[in-house]
Automatic annotation (TrEMBL):
One of its GO terms (molecular function) is N-acylneuraminate cytidylyltransferase activity. InterPro entries: CMP-NeuNAc_synthase (IPR050793), Cytidylyl_trans (IPR003329), Nucleotide-diphossugar_trans (IPR029044). This is Cytidyltransferase. Keywords: Transferase. The keyword Disulfide bond does not apply. The lineage of its organism: Bacteria, Candidatus Vogeliibacteriota.
Length: 241
């Protein structure tokens, strides 16, 4: 709880991972991937309730063994490759209200594919939203490896065109980064939103999205190459500590 506001955190972890089978419970540097998120969430100073939403009984079992509640099995209609986060969160919030009369003020999304997030980052995102009742949500962002102003799209005639073009600049892709507008990528470490953003506005983020800047952050684990890189980063961090 923060400022008398209840805080609920959800770890969405479905079973059907195509590129990395059983990704969410595969051992990353000796530990099931989902456990990294569980451990840091349990260290948070503000999270009152932590649950896992999954369609997979094995993922549920491992989460429960590691101290994370999983009071339901996610329906298959909310577990396909093309299902967005929104119906998953609506289902969880409705289930908790109907079965436990639990209606949180703040909702935290913790993707298991970001195992380097820390409890301090979780709490910083919660604090930021709690200070701004006029905002809809908070998202963690970082500077991208390459500016989108140096990227292209293919036009109707088959020629490359600038993806983004600052006013008065014909060739933004030839400009030094210092002269280009700042751009940020969503890294998905922590997303925090008001329950009302989801249940009343019908959106995961809304229109008023506050940024929590992370100086060092990595995109989530989606490929085997990502997996191997994260193992390297985690082992490097362990040796440093």
């Amino acid at each position: 709880m923060i400022n008398n506001l209840s805080v609920f955190a959800l770890i969405p972890a479905r079973g059907g991972s195509r590129r990395i089978p059983k990704k969410n419970i595969r051992k990353l540097a000796g530990k099931p991937l989902v456990c990294y998120s569980i451990e840091e969430a349990k260290k948070s100073r503000y999270i009152d309730r932590l649950i896992l939403s999954s369609d997979d009984a094995e993922i549920v079992s491992i989460a429960q063994e590691n101290g994370c509640d999983a009071p339901f099995i996610r329906p298959q209609k909310f577990a396909g490759d093309d299902v967005t986060d929104f119906p998953v969160f609506v289902h969880a919030l409705k289930w908790l209200e109907e079965h436990e009369s639990y209606i949180p003020d703040i909702v935290v999304q913790l993707r298991p594919t970001s195992p380097l997030r820390t409890a301090d980052q979780i709490d910083a995102a919660i604090e930021l939203l709690a200070r701004h009742s006029e905002a809809d949500s908070v998202r963690t962002v970082a500077e991208p490896e390459q500016s989108p102003y140096k990227m292209y799209r293919i036009g109707n005639a088959g020629y490359l065109e600038p993806l983004l073009q600052p006013e008065g600049e014909e060739e933004p892709f030839n400009l030094p980064n210092a002269k280009l507008p700042k751009a940020y990528k969503h890294v998905g470490y922590v997303d925090v939103m008001w329950r009302s953003t989801i249940m009343e506005k019908g959106q995961m983020t809304g229109k008023k999205v506050l940024p929590l800047f992370l100086e060092e952050a990595y995109s989530g684990i989606n490929t085997q190459q990502d997996w191997e890189y994260y193992e390297f980063l985690i082992e490097k961090k362990r040796k440093k500590n």
